[in-house]
Task: inverse folding
């Protein structure tokens, strides 16, 4: 759905939200289906969100912990399925379904059409994981934003922007989810800066997932 903001007509950077937020700061994600390299794009996208939030919160909100994706098992609240196809339904390369209760996201299911080059699958995965976190499709500004409604058409980067990350900060701190978030004036709109020092050490968890998936992967 497309909503038009009316109260902040002068603001440039705005993103809609999906109407729900996570209560837990740690969000386990189970990735299944497709091939090992396709699953690895989803795992890499989880890392991008984690690291981008570390960078953003360190810079602007040092007391905020943000949300952390971690690899989970088949009982994880987030289930990501990599589909070895080029389309889900007409015009749709990725989808996210929520179970919402009173504005709280209880679980989410994601499907990714993963029969594309790695970078495309990474962008699709990162975009859908943005939905998992409660971000909506950006149809109002920012053609090059990861959360743009047509990320592949607009050839966006898989790296979240300060608009996306500020919206996550709002989601992590409010009790009622607003319909839109406008980027705070003092924060410039830009992509997150990924520093190697921000890379955390849960690669070892990924190895476990890869080992499991190799037994079920189709190639
Ligand atoms: Zn979307």
Result:
């Amino acid at each position: 759905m497309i909503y038009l903001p009316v109260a902040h007509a002068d603001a440039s950077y705005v993103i809609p939200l999906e109407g729900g937020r996570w209560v837990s700061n740690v969000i386990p994600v189970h990735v299944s289906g497709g091939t090992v390299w396709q699953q690895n794009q989803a795992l890499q996208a989880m890392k991008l969100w984690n690291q981008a939030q570390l960078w953003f919160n360190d810079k602007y909100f040092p007391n905020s912990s943000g949300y952390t994706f971690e690899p989970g098992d088949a009982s994880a609240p987030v289930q990501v399925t990599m589909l070895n196809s080029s389309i889900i339904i007409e015009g749709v390369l990725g989808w996210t379904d929520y179970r919402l209760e009173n504005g709280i996201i209880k679980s989410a299911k994601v499907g990714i059409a993963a029969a594309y080059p790695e970078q495309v699958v990474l962008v699709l995965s990162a975009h859908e994981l943005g939905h998992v976190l409660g971000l909506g499709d950006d149809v109002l500004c920012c053609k090059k934003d990861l959360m743009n409604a047509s990320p592949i058409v607009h050839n966006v980067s898989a790296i979240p922007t300060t608009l996306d990350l500020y919206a996550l900060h709002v989601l992590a701190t409010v009790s009622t989810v607003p319909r839109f978030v406008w980027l705070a004036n003092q924060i410039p709109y830009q992509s997150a800066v990924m520093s190697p020092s921000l890379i955390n050490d849960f690669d070892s968890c990924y190895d476990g997932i890869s080992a499991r998936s190799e037994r079920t992967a189709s190639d």
Summary: The radius of gyration is 16 Å. Residues 14-214 form a domain with the Collagenase (Catalytic Domain) fold (CATH 3.40.390.10). The helical segments are 36-60, 118-132, 162-173, 203-216. The chain has one domain: 14-214.
